[in-house]
Amino acid sequence: MPIALLALTAGAFGIGTTEFVIMGLLMQVSTDLHVSITAAGLLISGYALGVAVGAPVLTIATRKLPRKTVLLALMAIFTLGNLACALAPNYEMLMAARVITSLAHGTFFGVGSVVATGLVAPERRASAIAIMFTGLTAATLLGVPAGAWLGLQLGWRSTFWAVTLIGVLAFVVLAAFVPRMKGEAKPAPLREEIAVLARPQVLLGLAMTVLGFAGVFVVYTYIQPLLTQITGLSESAVSPVLLVFGGGLAVGNILGGKLADRAPMAAVLGTLVALAVVLGAMQFTIGTPFTAVVFVGLLGVASFATVAPMQLRVLEKASGAGQNLASSLNIAAFNLGNALGAWVGGVTIDHGPGLRALGWVAALLTLVGLAIALWSRALDRRTQKTGQLPADGAASSARA
């Protein structure tokens, strides 16, 4: 794997840290800014919705620029947004700063995924995506627990100061090691790029991402109150448990990439089934420290095992014009899932059966994503039986 992939991973680490670190700071933010825990949880939904808006808008706006230039500009937006978070005087300004920060997220991972797949042989595309997304797993394994610990010791603002520094370092690494891609094709007419969204399999891919991944954030958004109020752990014990989650993400990310290299659609189906099972098991495991830690680790494995297969699925179905846009939109779809999950989790806590029910509510959402994936596979098989060449690029994934 070329060193440029490691540079992309560094950028992913910075963005992943700022996205996920707020989960370990909910109670501190809630207390300091005088808002409820569920209101603090909406900082996650606000970030995710910003990604959903920023991904298509910035991808279209930067479509004529060299990809390295785009990546550097996005990292600059990310860094300035985190600086604004550290300086935010109240909840409303913190929410606005989180949204500004999030605008860079979707396009960075979307364009980065395309760059990553262009750096390796075709049979290693899913693994290349997985390596870039290792930055997210490293963020969860190292950045989030460290940020939660720092916030506990020095206040939540110190965490965002630290993430701002990470952004500066990531910018330098990207500038030094990501090559300017020679012979980048001129962008297709905008209408051809947007036309990719009319492909049924692309739309199904985006839908399975939103709903399949939403279940993760029904639970993970409220992992701090779950571990302290139900499992009975102290606030200081949350950071070590998040390390377990991060370790699970690292394993799941690599596993998902390898599975997707072999059979992309089978990997999508298998990882969604595994995720639903793990989420459903929360009801029986969250009550004691040992089983809760095991659950958190398995949740990490199952959640990120879905990422590379679902990202590759959309890239394959969006082959040709519009691949950058579709790739960015699928990152937006992951974050729409994050926002949906955080919102559903908040409703379950405030107006439903409460914290203990989050697991089975999450599992139901993921099962809806699985149903959409089964529908997508059925369309593939129908196309194969009729012997027609699919207009959406599905032929490349017939091996699934």
Q: What's the total helix number?
A: 17
Distance between the amino and carboxyl termini = 24 Å
C-alpha Rg (nearest Å)? 20 Å
Q: SSE string, helix = H, strand = E?
A: HHHHHHHHHHHHHHHHH
* Shape designation: globular
Instruction: Quickly give the structural class.
Output: mainly alpha
Molecular structure report:
There is one protein chain. The protein is an all-alpha fold. Helices cover 80% and strands 0% of the residues. It is built from 17 helices and no strands. Helix 1 runs antiparallel to helix 5 (91-118), helix 9 runs parallel beside helix 12 and helix 9 runs parallel beside helix 16 (323-351). The protein is globular and about 55 Å long. The two termini are 24 Å apart. 58% of the residues are buried. Residues 389-400 have low confidence and may be disordered.
What is the compact description of this entry?
Helix content is 80%, strand content 0%. The chain has 400 residues and is mainly alpha-helical.
